[in-house]
User: What shape does this take?
Amino acid sequence: MSAFDPAVFSRHSRFDVDHLSIATIPASDLVAEFGTPLFVVDEADFRSRAAQWKSALEEAFGVSAGSVYYAAKSFISKEVARWVEQVGVGLDVCTGGELAVAQASGFPANRVELHGNNKSEDEIREAISYGVHTIVIDSFFEIERVARIASELNVLQRVYIRVTPGVEAHTHEFISTAHEDVKFGFSLASGAAWDAISAIRVEKSLKLVGLHSHIGSQIFESEGFAAAAAKLITLLARFKETYGDQLPELDLGGGYGIAYLPGEVTLDPSSVLNELAEIVKRECAAAQIAVPIISIEPGRAIVGPTTTTLYTVGTTKDVELDGGQSRRYIAVDGGMSDNIRPALYGAEYIAILANRLPLGPTQVSRVVGKHCESGDIIIRDIELSADIQPGDILAVPATGAYGYSMASNYNHVPRPAVIAVIDGKARLIVRRESIADLLALEI
Assistant: This one.
């Protein structure tokens, strides 16, 4: 299906008469100024989605509302970090590089949460020195490392433990993170989570303030969140029974799904969090504990729908299939180097002709990249206009999460530029890489 679908594109995208526009700027004008491939971020959409998650959390949990953490791994730049700070949302980082972007943007350290299953000592030291609000502990080795470095720096470091609750999320196995056989966190079923609690409590430089769980990404069903919340609240109740006080905080992660294809729906923050609040309050009442301060990590749900990738068509060719059928191959000037998700996860996208009205019939097409790889496929099967030719512009929506952040230089292709558009104005926020950039590391 090749028609413009407002449910999949950013909120300020329109198909105006005969072309796609984003924030009232024609796609062809953006391409003329900035080139392709090009990530186009609808800034007003980004800000409004972040604000919606924040207000929905506060409305659902009231005085028990904690922080909404924006996932730096989905896409981060200094400018995006500034938007996150201005909206009043926290920032979740999981490497020293992501932390460095936060620091370079002047992001408040007391609104940063540090994740990661294998944090280096340098990353831990930098985070504690910067004053990050919370470090999420992921292994027994990390307990010792964080405690030692915090002691050396004379800091009492707030920490969570990441609990693996043994919940099967209905998503791709590579982005399902809370069943038992994963690299993340401390298993609840094996007793490792409780052992981690005991180990942290004896460390004088660590202050255990809560539990953390994340069951996966691109999840649309509530059952997994309900099961995870119930198990973590049971662990909170055990803590209170054993130690006499209650851990005050609970981070329930996120991974809420967004629309990539026609007919799909991006989850509504208020509906999601009202349902989650009912679950948490019910389980806390049953366990006879107070509702803790609840934080969440919406993940791709903030940035994913806000961004569209623009490509220029380079070649087309028709390939004969069995049964007398044919397929049109449409090759664009990007591919798996700027969107690895179709090859990695089998992720599905749509595309539309952005610079003009399509003419004539449609044809079964495959949108592919320019890389020397048979798996370099952006869209495996889609009905697109049979008259698409070199020089046309294709727009692929919902690429804000993990497009640029997972981009590579495969085949020594420079990474694309990222621009922000708002109120009819466009500006560069991450410049396009050059061949000189690629050669700069050579000795």
Notes: The longest strand covers residues 307-320. The chain has two domains: 13-42+305-439, 115-298. Residues 258 and 436 are 37 Å apart (CA to CA).
